[in-house]
Amino acid sequence: MGKIIMQQFITMDGVIQAPGDLDEFEYGGWQRPYVGEEHLALIVEQAYAAEALLLGRKTYESFAATWPSATGMRGLADRMNCMPKFVASRSLSHAEWNATIVHGDAAEEAAKLKQEFSGDLLVVGSGDLAQTLMNHHLIDEYRLWVHPLILGRGQRLFREGIEMAAMRLMDSKTLSTGVAIHIYQPGN
Q1: End-to-end Cα, the chain, rounded Å
Q2: Cα–Cα distance, 138 to 154 (Å, whole number)
Q3: pLDDT tens digit sequence for 131-187
Q4: Quick one: which of 7, 45, 167, 170 could link to 143 by a disulfide (CB 3.0–4.6 Å)?
Q5: How far is it, in rounded angstroms, from Cα 38 to Cα 72?
C-alpha cells in the first residue's frame, strides 16, 4: 500500500497560496527569494522518491503550463515531466502531461490510489485537495517547508474548522536560507 505525502511550501502564518506564481495574488511568488541549490537538491530527491503526483486542478493547470517546457534543474524537469499524475477535478474533461483525471469523490479516489500504488503519492500545493485529504485522514506524512516570512493574507493550509490532530515530528532541518523543513506523521 502506498502513502500520501503532502509537501507544502508555507509561510510562518500558514499561507500556501502561490509560492511561485507571480500572477495569482498580490504576494504571489513569495517563495522565490528562498530557492537555491540546497533547496533544489532536496526537491529533486523528494520527486525521485515519489511514484506519482496527486494534484488538484488549479495546481495541475499551473504545473502543466510550466513544466513541459522546463529543462535541467538537476533532473527535476525530467522527473516532473515523466512521472504519472492524478488530477482531482470535477470540471476537467481531459488532461495531458502524463496525467489521469480522477473524477468523483476525491477522498474515495485517493484512498483507492493508496491501495493501487506501493510507492508514495506526492501532493504538492493543491490547497482544496489538501483540505479534503486532511478531513478524511488520508495524509500519511506532512512535509512542511516553513519560510521565514509572514504575509498576513492568502489561502492557508490549516483552515478554520479543521479537526484537531496530534502529530509526531519525524525529522527537521533548516536550510541556509532560514527555511525550516519539518516532517510530521499523524499520531501521538
Answers
A1: 22
A2: 24
A3: 999 999 999 999 999 999 999 999 999 988 888 889 999 999 999 999 999 999 998
A4: 7
A5: 15
Question: According to CATH, what is the number of the domain 3-186?
Answer: 3.40.430.10
Say what the pTM is: 0.92
Is 69 within 8 Å of 90 (Cβ atoms)? no
Cell 479543521 identifies what position? 162
* Beta-ladder partners of 87: 55, 101
Closest CA to 40 of 14, 17, 62, 70: 70
Angle formed at CA 160 by CA 159 and CA 163, multiple of 5 degrees: 90
Q: Which sign does the torsion angle of CA 35, 128, 21, 73 carry?
A: positive
In 14-84, which ranges are E strands? 50-56
pLDDT at 21: 82
